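Exercise 7.
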Amino acid sequence: MNSTSSTLLAAAAIAGLVAAAPANSMAMSSLPPEHVQGTVAYRTGGIGHDEAVAMRKTESQYPLSVEFLKHATPVEHLASVDVTISDAQGTTDLSAISVGPYLLAKLPAGKYTIAATHSGQTKSRGFVIAANKPEHLTFEW
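Solution. The predicted structure, written as tokens, is:
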């Protein structure tokens, strides 16, 4: 390979890195802020395309991801869902309103119950957070 070819390959590689950087920073800037309640860090959001994409890309960094949907054709995403997560002893670890269709939470390993309320209708279920095994829950009304 001559020096011109090497220079062109290096320039193409740098251009690829520069082109990728704005997409990553755009996804990060589209994320809603992380909140902390007690020992639980969490995010809620996903309103609008960019924020929804950013939340889905970040999902793997949280042991729990929850999605809220309205059973319709087509399926609709819901916001303003009241969420309470309690541990096996019944202690509330998180009580928040999900401002968008996604809630991401950093919970320690253990057994939990989640209750989600939308338009006066509450749904609940138990789930387990295990080390290195993210849990994804979907609630539909």
